[in-house]
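About this split. The held-out portion is used to measure sequence recovery: a designer receives only the structure tokens and must propose an amino acid at every position. Recovery is the fraction of positions where the proposal matches the reference. Here is one held-out target exactly as it appears in the evaluation file.
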């Protein structure tokens, strides 16, 4: 017996809602931070006796990000290709270079990583294709891609990453070349981490701020956030720096406590002086 099928009827598969983890993973893979993650990991793992492991982890992470993005329907980004090329080269160097070259890479690999990424970001600006544009286009309709504000926001975010990793490269160079210590608490960790967190914070903060500012300029009912909100991360970062200094004996007890107190004071002052985001919108 043959069942008659009505061609006018369309079978609709039920929509399965994404889990919080899946939504979070998609948001991560669709943001510039995904392509930055291997560089951050490389910079923090690399050190005496750890170059091979750092390069392997960064390359593996780059590969996972490309595969994950592709499986979710995203286009391959220039930054992701650059990640694969750079870190595969580092893996090959770790395997086949002489011991002297590997020793040099263990000393200067962090600075090389920062300089390579700064050069990539600057290059994307020079050819008028800021690398964040590819990520932004996946979350905005095509008619927005030529919008001057859309383009401006991506230039500014790309510059924030140039600045963030540039600060890390300069601090690392000073630690290696002047202090002769590539594991220095301040130049090898804190300053570089602060630069990275600033770039992440700017990436999250600036689009909404720029749009609200443009709307207010056009006479619409919009109030941009205070620029001070860009620095919301600073008090906690300062407190954690003090705690880390005490735990690792990288600071004296007095200095560590002073840093923690300064962080608390900054937090209290910001809560009192900087308008809350929700109140600013009200």
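Reference sequence for scoring:
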């Amino acid at each position: 017996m043959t069942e008659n099928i009505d061609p006018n009827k369309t079978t609709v598969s039920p929509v399965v809602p994404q889990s919080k983890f899946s939504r979070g993973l998609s948001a991560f893979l669709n943001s510039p931070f995904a392509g930055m993650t291997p560089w951050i990991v490389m910079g923090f793992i690399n050190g005496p006796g750890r170059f091979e492991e750092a390069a392997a982890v960064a390359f593996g992470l780059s590969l996972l990000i490309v595969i994950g993005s592709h499986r979710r329907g995203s286009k391959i980004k220039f930054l992701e290709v650059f990640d694969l090329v750079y870190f595969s080269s580092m893996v090959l160097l770790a395997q086949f270079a002489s011991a002297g070259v590997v020793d040099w890479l263990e000393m200067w690999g962090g600075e090389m990583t920062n300089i390579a990424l700064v050069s990539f970001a600057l290059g994307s600006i020079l050819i008028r294709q800021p690398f964040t544009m590819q990520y932004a286009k996946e979350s905005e309709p095509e008619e927005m891609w030529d919008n001057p504000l859309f383009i401006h926001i991506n230039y500014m975010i790309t510059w924030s990453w140039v600045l963030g990793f540039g600060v890390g490269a300069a601090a690392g160079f000073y630690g290696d070349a002047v202090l002769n210590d590539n594991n220095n608490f301040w130049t090898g960790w804190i300053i570089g981490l602060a630069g990275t967190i600033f770039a992440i914070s700017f990436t999250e903060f600036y689009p909404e701020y720029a749009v609200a500012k443009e709307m207010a300029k056009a006479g619409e009912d919009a109030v941009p956030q205070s620029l001070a909100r860009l620095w919301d991360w600073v008090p906690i970062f300062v407190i954690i720096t003090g705690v880390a200094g005490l735990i690792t004996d990288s600071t004296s007890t007095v200095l560590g406590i002073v840093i923690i107190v300064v962080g608390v004071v900054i937090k209290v002052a910001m809560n009192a002086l900087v308008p809350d985001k929700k109140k600013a919108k009200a």
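Annotator remark: The chain has two domains: 20-224, 225-282.
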